[in-house]
Amino acid sequence: MGGLDAFYSPRSVVVLGASRRPGKLGHDVMVECARLGFSGAMYGVNPLADGEPVGGWPVVRSVRDLPEVPDLAFVALPASGTLDAVTELARAGVRAAVLAAAGLGELGGEAALAEQEIARAARAAGMRLLGPNGFGLYAGSVGLNLTGWREVPAGRVALLTQSGNVAIALCRMMAGSTVGVSSCTGIGNQLDVDVAELLEHHARSAGSDAIALYVEGLRATSGRRLVQALSACTQAGKPVVVLKGGRSDAATRSVASHTGALGGDRRLWDAALREGGARQVADPAALVDALEACQATRGRRIRGVLVLSDGGGDTVLATDALDDAGVPLALLGSGTRTALDALVPPAAPRAEGANPVTLDTAGGLEDDPRLIARCAETGAADGAVDAVVVTGTFGGYRGRRAEELDAVARLAALARAGTPVLVHSAFAADDEEPVVALRREGVPVYPTVRRLAVALAAARGVGGSAVSVRVAGLPSPTEEGLAAAPAGDRAAVPTAEAGVAVPTAEALARLAAVGVAVPAVVTVRNDAELADAAARMPFPLCLKVEDPLVSHKSDVGGVVLDVAPGAAADAAHALWQRFPGRALVVMPMLSPGVELLVGLGRDPTFGAFVIVGRGGVAAEVDPDVALALAPLSSGDALALWGSLRCAPLLRGWRAQPGVDLGSLAGLTAAMSELAQREPGLEIECNPVLAYEHGYAVADVRARERRA
To answer: What is the pLDDT of residues 419-476, one digit of tens each?
Structure first.
C-alpha cells in the first residue's frame, strides 16, 4: 500500500474504544461495518473486554493482543486518551490512524501542545494520521464506515469536509438527487494529512468522478500545494466543487475556535480556487446542485443552451436566470429554426431565433408531453446546442402519465448520447413518477430555474465569487498616531505585523532592481541636504514626510505639491514644524494620470500575491481590485488588469485614450519577480500614474519581515 491507501482500502482495521453499548461511537462503527460487509478483518480494543464480540468482530484488551498488525486504526477515545493510544499503535507498527477526539489543537494552549505530542509520536514511527477533531471516514468500495451514521447515498463523489454536520446535510440532500458518495472524509485539524494531500489522492483514485470540498482553513504555508492539488484534479477530469466556510470577518474568527486552522483571507481563497480550476459555491444546496450539473455535462464545453418551456412565465424567468448566471442561449441554425417552428403549436409565442421555445397553448405539452422530447431531439442536432434546459411543470401531467414517461425515456437517451439535459420543475420536490424516473436516469431536476442556472454556470467553470474584491492595504496610522510617534528616521519602526518599515528611497531601489521605472527621489533631514537636492532636481517639486506606513500623506498634511523654485525651504519648514525631526522625501512633480495601485503582499497560508486596481483615494471609496497568487507572467498580469470593473476605461472610452496596459502588465509581472527575490518584502505602489505611454510610480510603501 502507498500514499493514503491504508485509509481508503485497508485490509484490516482496529477500533480503539470498542463498546458493547449502542450509541457509543466505538460500538456503532463496528456494527455498521458488519452491516456493510467490510471486506477485511476488523478488531476491537477495550481494556474491559470479556471475549464477547461487537457486531460479530472480536474484541481484545490491548493492541498487543491483536492477532495481526492492522493497516488502519480508528481511535474512538477522548482527547485525554489519544496520545497513549497513538503511542501504542505506533509501537505496534500500525500504518495509519483516524483520530475522532475533539478538544486538542483547536482549543490552543496545553491542548495544542498535546496535539503536537501526538504528531511527534506518529511521525517517529512513520504512521499517518487523519484528524483529530474529525467525524471519521467512509469508504464505500470496501464497506468501511467509521462515521457513526448510516445514511450515505452511494455514488461517485469523494466528499471531503471539515464539518460532520455539513457532511450529514450534504448526504441527505444527495439522497434525493442524481449524485452520491464514494467516500466521505472528516478532515479535522489536519495534524498530518491535510486537504491538499486528500485532493491529490482522489485525483489519482479510480473510485470517484468528482470531488466535493467543504473547507474552513488550511495549515500555514499549504496554500500553494492546495492550488496544485486542485489543478491535478482538474487535469484528471474531476471537477472540484468547493464550499468555503469562514468568508465573513466574524466567521473567520470562529474558524480558529472550531478547527484550529487558519481561516485565511476571502480574496486569497477566491484567487486560489480560481487558479486551481475549482467551482466555488455559496451553500450546501448549491454544492449538490453543481455536482449534479457537473455529472450531467460530463466535462462538455457548454457554449450555448436550448431552453424548452411549457409556460410563458417560465420561459421569461429561465432566460433571465441563465443570463444572470452568464450561461448563453444557443444561436440556432436556419434549418433547426424551421424544424422547431413546425413542432411549436400555431398559437404559441415565437422567440426571435426560435430560442427559447414555449409550448403552452393548445397542441402543446398538455395534449402531448412527448413534444418536449421531440423539440429537445431536434435542437440537439444543431451544433450550437451544447445542452438542453427544460423548465416548467414537467412531471405534473398526471392525465398524460404514459406520454410523460415516454418523454423521460427519450430525454434520458438524449443525455446518454452526449447532449446534457437539465430540468427545472415545479414538481421537483414531489415523488411524481416522471421526476423520480428522470433522476434515476441521471437527469437532474431542480426546484427553481435559478438554482439550475447557477449550477450550470458552476459546471461551465464560471460560477463563484467575482474577481474584483476589496483591498485592505497596509496599515494607515491616524494623524494623531503619526504626530505622536518618535522623532527621527522611521526606517526601523516595527509594524503591527512584526515587520520593519522600509524607507521610500530603498523601496524604490528594490523596485528598480527588477526593472520597474521609478522616479528620482532624495531623502533630506536638514536645510543643507534640501538645498543640495533642490539644486539637482527639475522644478516644480513634491515634498512629503518620510513615513512608509501612511497610505495617504495628504490626509495628514504630510505632502506639499507644485513647489516652485525658491519655495522649497518654506515648504520643508512647514512640514518639519508639523512633523518635528522627520525626514522628508523630495522628488519632481509628475504629470497627472489615471491613479492605479500595484502591490505585493504575503499571506501565511498562500504565500506571495500580487494585487492591482484603482489607486489613490478611489482604492478605499470605490474598491475595484483584483488579486492573483505569485508567480504570474505578463500575460497573466494583463488578464488581471482586464478583470477590473474599470477595465473599459483603462482601454479607452469615447474620445479619451486608454492607458498603456502593456507597461502596467510588465510592472505587475516585475512585482511578482520581486516576490521571488525578496521573500520577506511587502510593497505597495499607490498611486501609480498610468499614461497613454508608460507609467510613473508616485508613492510607495513597503515593509520587510526579517528573521
So the answer is: 999 999 999 999 899 999 999 999 999 999 999 999 999 999 864 433 333 233 333 3
What does the DSSP 8-state code read for residue 218? B
Cell numbers given for 303: 457554449
Residues 277 and 175 in one domain: yes
Q: Which residues contact 139 (CB under 8 A, 6 or more apart)?
A: 7, 8, 9, 183
Q: Residue 674: which domain range? A: 467-519+589-707
| Cβ 659 vs Cβ 649: under 8 Å | no
DSSP state of 103: S
Of 72, 107, 137, which marks where a domain is finished?
137
- Kindly state whether residues 220 and 346 are assigned to the same domain: no
Question: Within 10 A of 470 (CB to CB), how many other CB atoms are there?
Answer: 13
User: What digits encode the pLDDT tens for the residues 59-114?
Assistant: 999 999 999 999 999 999 999 999 999 999 999 999 999 999 999 988 899 999 99
Q: Which residues contact 236 (CB under 8 A, 6 or more apart)?
A: 203, 204
Q: How far apart are CA 595 and CA 366, in angstroms?
A: 61
Helix, strand, or coil (residue 246): coil
C-alpha–C-alpha distance, residues 126 and 307, integer Å: 56
Q: Are 671 and 599 in contact (CB under 8 A)?
A: yes
CATH code for the domain of 413: 3.40.50.261
Q: How many independent structural domains does the chain possess?
A: 4
Q: Which residues contact 262 (CB under 8 A, 6 or more apart)?
A: 217, 218, 219, 220, 255, 256, 604, 605
What is the 8-class DSSP label of residue 399? G
Q: Is 400 found in the same domain as 356?
A: yes
Helices (H) and strands (E) in the chain, counts: 24, 31
Residue with cell 444546496: 285
Give CA 543 to chain center in angstroms. Answer: 43
Q: Please state, in angstroms and rounded to a whole number, the distance separating the CA atoms of residues 417 and 243.
A: 31
Q: Are both 23 and 120 inside the same structural domain?
A: yes
Cell triple for 146: 467509521
Contacts of 207 by beta carbon, 8 Å cutoff, 6+ apart: 8, 140, 141, 156, 158, 182, 183
Tell whether 183 and 127 lie within a shared domain: no
pLDDT per residue as tens digits for the range 313-365? 999 999 999 999 999 999 999 999 999 999 999 989 999 899 999 999 888 88
Residue 505 lies in a domain: yes
> Do 498 and 639 have their domain in common?
yes
Same domain, 365 and 424: yes
